[in-house]
Amino acid sequence: MYACLWGRSAHLVELAKRFSPLVEPVGTDAAVFSIAGLERLIGDAHQIASEISCQGAKLGVTANLAIAANPSAAALAARNIAGVTVIPAGREAEALAAIPAAALPVSAELITTLSQWGIRTLGELAALPETGLVERLGAQGSRLRKLALGQGDSFLEIHPPKPEYTIRRQLDDPASLLEPLLFLVSGQLHELTSQLHRNGLATNRITVDFTLERSQFRRVLELPVPMRDAPALLKQVQVALEADPPAEPVLAVQVTLDPVQPRVLQNGLFLPAAPEPEKLQTLLARLRALLGEESVGSPVNLNTHRPDAYRLRNCTFEAGVPGEVRHDGLRLSFRYFRPPLMAHVTMQGRQLRHIASARITGRIVLAAGPWRTSGDWWTSQTAWQRDEWDIVLEDNAVYRIYCAAGKWFLEGNYD
Amino acid sequence: MLAAATGSGEIVAVVDCHGAFDPASAQNAGVDLGKLLLMQCGHRMEHALRATDMILHSGGFGLIVLDLCDVPYPALNRIPVSSWHRFRRSVEHTPSILLVLARQSVAGSCATRQFALRQQAIRWRGKPPFQTMDCLAMEAACRKPMGMAPVTMEALGEA
Q: Which of A11, A147, A153 is nearest to A79 (CA)?
């Protein structure tokens, strides 16, 4: 059984939710809800209607109420019959017969057509032969007739509120050590991930809030891939908190996980192995804690001619389909001295003769260059201009040196 | 090796002790940078060893390169032998390869293969002084196991 409330009140949905979690708000002036199962709690349909009316009066709701076997009939009755209407199962056509055909939820064009046919009420529409209606109006004709007979086959469209994956724990005594706090966070994470698992979800963001004695402490961890493995999440939290622990004793701990769809990946038997995403994220977090945030990642060359222009991006690896391996021979690689070494270069005329630096000193037997490069001259921060040489020393080692702003630098060697 | 490993779909890691890795020349050599994890250890060899240990224990990497080329000899000699034993235990029953680059043999008996690379001739292209490097010839001698003939390799410059 279904009930429909129709009226101009802001509390319609609230009233409906007092009787059922399955509520469909229809526009701003109606709410249809299921009352199946209330017979055992309240009684028959009339008693349920009476109870709804009582609760409505307490909330100050003025609305029509209709109860019927299907949502469409309940909605039609509530919209068009004033007061409380209880339609017994099987007598919907009789109850709806007097309602004007214009009340049907169809286009104005179709209402005009029905009016031109001389159809004024749902009773008259229901009396038409179904075959004739379908011949003239198609599938919509059959649907209209069913609505007029109170046999609509619509279902409630339920939009339950998004669940929040948040757990807050208040501590009896302030805690200043990380270990007991992590023990608490571990329990919260296990509970939240099991909730995510039940709903077929994962998370890509962990928010840990600590209520301190005099302030608040928040740590937000973004995960590049959705995860729901509690130990892996705990490790991330642990590494983050060890790097930056709260400064004061903690009074309460709140953990929030943002729900997202889990990552679906089909591996192949013949694909090379790749690090598991959960393990990889833990590994990256530990490496960042050891080496620094900016020192770990996948290199990406920047779209510029500036030498040594690249950045490290956060990486997510997946086992890839093997591509074609290039067999066009070995290529020269370059090894940078970071930062470049200051050097003193002796020149004879325009020839480079000798180089002396903290790392390499020797006679230059061959120098190729200069190769002049410049760029970013339109910005003052990253503008560069320099003359480069490739030099060979007596031990046959090949280096790249450059001169910028009158100073010499040793940039690296060819390998 | 990095180009071959990433070309076959494997994920590789480079532990760069002194920040010498050049992504541009690696890409030019055919390395798929999207499958490479680079760690710059800020000239701290202890961090490089710890990072390598973490990666080996994490698993899933096809090739791990530990670059200690710029570490001076005294520091190389200070690396405890137990570190190499630990690394060997981590990789010996896995499909991963740990490649250590250094000025001298460091892993000793823990290494399965050892190669010594020596630079030979350089070939230039163009007229002095505006020459570009055409190729760099290197000799690779297998030190372990012994008995294999040295191989000469040529690394080509940019076209």
A: A147
Please tell me the predicted confidence (pLDDT) of residue A297. Answer: 92
Query: Residue A146 corresponds to which tokens in the numbers above?
Result: 């069913």
Q: How far is B97 from chain A (nearest CA, A)?
A: 13
Q: 3-state SS of chain B: helix, strand, coil percent to 5?
A: 30, 30, 40
Top residue of B38, B99, B131, B138 to mutate, by most chain A CBs within 10 Å, is B38
Closest by CA position to B24, among listed A79, A204, A336: A336
Question: What's the pLDDT at A319?
Answer: 63
* Residue, of A102 and B53, whose pLDDT is higher: B53
The encoded tokens of residue A371 equal 């190769």
Give A79: exposed, middle or buried? Use CB within 10 Å, 0-12, 13-18, 19+.
middle
Binned at pLDDT 50, 70 and 90, residue B101 comes out as very high
Q: Looking at the domain covering B2-110, what would its CATH class be?
A: alpha beta
Residues of chain A with pLDDT under 70: 153, 267, 318-328
Closest CB to A336: pick one of B10, B19, B129. Answer: B19
Structure token digits, residue B147: 């008995």
Question: HEC states along A340-365?
Answer: EEEEEEEEECCEEEEEEECCCEEEEE
Both tokens assigned to A6: 């129709």
In angstroms, the CA A78 to CA A4 distance is: 6
Q: Is there a contact between A372 and A387 (Cβ–Cβ < 8 Å)?
A: yes
What one-character-per-residue DSSP string does A204-219 give? EEEEEEEEESSSEEEE
The answer to whether A5 and A15 have CB atoms below 8 angstroms apart is yes
Is the CB of B46 inside 8 Å of chain A's CB atoms? no
Q: What is the pLDDT of residue A411?
A: 93
Chain B residue with the nearest C-alpha to that of A276: B60
The domain locations on chain B are 2-110, 113-159
The domains of chain A are located at: 2-148, 166-318, 334-414
Whether the Cβ atoms of residue B102 and residue B69 lie closer than 8 Å to each other: yes
Torsion, Cα of B78, B83, B87, B89 (10° steps):
140
State the architecture of A166-318 in CATH terms: 2-Layer Sandwich (3.30)
- Residues B33-51 as b/e (b if ≥16 CB within 10 A, e otherwise) read bbbbbbbbbeeebebbbbb
Exposed (0-12), middle (13-18) or buried (19+): which is A199, by Cβ within 10 Å?
A: exposed
Residues making up chain B, counted from first to last: 159
What is the interface size between A and B, counted as CB pairs within 8 Å?
Answer: 184
Tens digit of each residue's pLDDT (9 = 90 or more) over B3-16: 888 888 889 999 99
Is B102's pLDDT higher than 90? yes
Q: Do A335 and B11 touch (CB under 8 A)?
A: no
Contacts of B7 (CB under 8 A, 6+ apart): A322, A323, A324, A325, A326, B30, B32
The CATH classification number of A2-148 equals 1.10.150.20
